[in-house]
Specification:
By secondary structure, the protein is an all-alpha fold. It has helices spanning about 5-25, 30-65. The chain is about 80% helix and about 0% strand.
């Protein structure tokens, strides 16, 4: 899979959305829910990144013909 710029836009979009949601929740005195929303956003982005890293290791294994 070639490098797609779309993944950068997805991560940036998720970050902007989570930031806006957290600010709205903090202004309405819902700090606990804002923390959970930011944690959920972090988990979503980490899942995207982990899948990309696993694809990278598969490609490295194929290139160097390991195993």
């Amino acid at each position: 899979m070639a490098f797609d710029i779309d993944i950068i836009f997805k991560i940036a979009g998720i970050g902007i959305l989570i930031t806006v949601l957290c600010q709205v929740l903090k202004k309405s005195d819902r700090d606990d829910i804002a923390t959970l929303v930011s944690l959920a956003g972090l988990i979503i982005v980490l899942m995207l990144v982990i899948s990309m890293i696993s694809e990278l290791f598969i490609q490295i294994k194929d290139i160097f013909q390991l195993y």
